[in-house]
Backbone:
């Protein structure tokens, strides 16, 4: 049986950050970084948009501002991002404030999906040069907490400390693992919404502020804006019962690619369930499966013009006249989002979109497309033995988006640093 001082499950931002921190401060240590994917995965591959301002991405129950700011500076000093300028947003902010909406000012950088892939390749090469073993296409299956043994689909590994950071796609794996090893947790909150796609000229704020963050009443917000060379994608999720559904998401290429004149962004409603609902994850799966049923196994898209008329969109109706651009996600079913999206979510989001159209007139042009579903799973909330280092059981740390300690690249990276500090024996740098 092989033995490693530190084993890391998940090669997204959380796992990468921990690997760099551990190897920098313990260059003599044996470190393993594994991922079931064929390439290093996580948010760095998806548009690679990073926000460097609290509280974006930082669940406040785990991250007091002073603590988050300290870790953010460590993230910045390592990644050295090229921060984007914000210009001429005062008028947008004044319009927002008049109708009870907040526009946040966030330090941002954007590499694009292709730029993110180049960054990942550089980071992985750096880790290998440090002697870290990187095991891709190796799937973690279980942990024997008493014996300090990690079982994968190819071997058993003895570890000194292990960090489990599977990200959002590993949400179900993580909750099943916590059930098996006896880590209490709650799973009662999700984000559900639409991805909006329109011409950039109808959402011109992105020319001055790449990813504008609007906070609306009823816990609705804009999220993950993409422009210049933007496109909508679908992401496959497997349910606990073995079925699958697709959630939509947005990407953009770097400035190396020609612009296509389109912009997309998410509008999400957050909800926290109370008894008797046991699992936000199960609720999300049901929403996803329902959308697949109505969409014939595909996500649903609807033009705003059709939605306002109370009719479904059709394939023939997606061309010509006012409907003057093609959807970038072709493998999607024209339909009626109101058939599958819970009314409470839809009412809140439609109200927010009308407010947004007041702040940035034109976004609700009849041709604008609403894609459904966009579901974000952040709901695992372990009960930690030591919250400062995200220690769930002796020798076992849980962190990242799948464990509810972050919501995005930079907070996930900060979570990896924080877990690594604990894995190093509680050596928390000032």
Residues:
């Amino acid at each position: 049986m092989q033995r490693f001082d530190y084993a890391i499950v998940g090669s997204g931002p959380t796992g990468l950050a921990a690997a760099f921190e551990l190897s920098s401060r313990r260059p003599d240590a044996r470190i393993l970084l594994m991922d079931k994917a064929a390439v290093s995965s996580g948010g760095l591959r998806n548009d690679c948009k990073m926000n460097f301002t609290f509280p974006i991405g930082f669940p406040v129950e785990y991250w007091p501002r002073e603590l988050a700011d300290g870790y953010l500076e460590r993230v910045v000093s390592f990644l050295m991002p090229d921060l984007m300028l914000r210009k001429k947003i005062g008028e947008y902010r004044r319009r927002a404030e008049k109708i009870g909406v907040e526009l946040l000012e966030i330090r941002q950088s954007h590499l694009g999906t292709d730029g993110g892939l180049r960054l990942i390749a550089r980071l992985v090469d750096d880790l290998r040069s440090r002697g870290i073993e990187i095991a891709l296409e190796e799937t973690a299956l279980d942990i024997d907490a008493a014996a300090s043994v990690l079982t994968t689909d190819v071997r058993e590994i003895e570890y000194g400390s292990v960090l489990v950071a599977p990200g959002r796609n590993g949400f179900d794996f993580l909750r099943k693992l916590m059930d098996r090893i006896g880590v209490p947790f709650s799973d009662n909150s999700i984000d559900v919404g639409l991805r909006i796609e329109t011409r950039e000229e109808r959402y011109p704020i992105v020319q001055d502020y790449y990813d504008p963050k609007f906070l609306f009443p009823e816990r609705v917000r804009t999220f993950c804006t993409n422009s210049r060379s933007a496109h909508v994608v679908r992401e496959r999720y497997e349910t606990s019962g073995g079925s699958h559904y697709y959630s939509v998401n947005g990407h953009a290429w770097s400035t190396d690619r020609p612009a296509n004149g389109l912009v997309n962004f998410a509008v999400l409603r957050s909800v926290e369930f109370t008894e008797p609902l046991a699992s936000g994850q199960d609720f999300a799966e049901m929403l996803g499966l329902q959308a697949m049923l109505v969409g014939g196994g595909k996500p649903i898209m609807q033009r705003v013009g059709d939605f306002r008329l109370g009719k479904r969109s059709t394939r023939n109706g997606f061309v010509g006249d006012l409907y003057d651009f093609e959807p970038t996600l072709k493998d999607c079913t024209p339909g009626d989002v109101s058939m599958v999206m819970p009314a409470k979510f839809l009412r809140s989001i439609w109200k927010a979109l009308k407010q947004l159209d007041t702040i940035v007139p034109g976004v609700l042009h009849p041709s604008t497309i609403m894609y459904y579903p966009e579901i974000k799973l952040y709901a695992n909330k372990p009960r930690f033995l030591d919250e400062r280092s995200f220690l769930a059981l002796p020798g076992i740390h849980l962190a990242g988006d799948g464990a509810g300690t972050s919501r995005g690249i930079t907070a996930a990276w900060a979570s990896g640093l924080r877990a690594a500090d604990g894995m190093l024996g509680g050596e928390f740098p000032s």
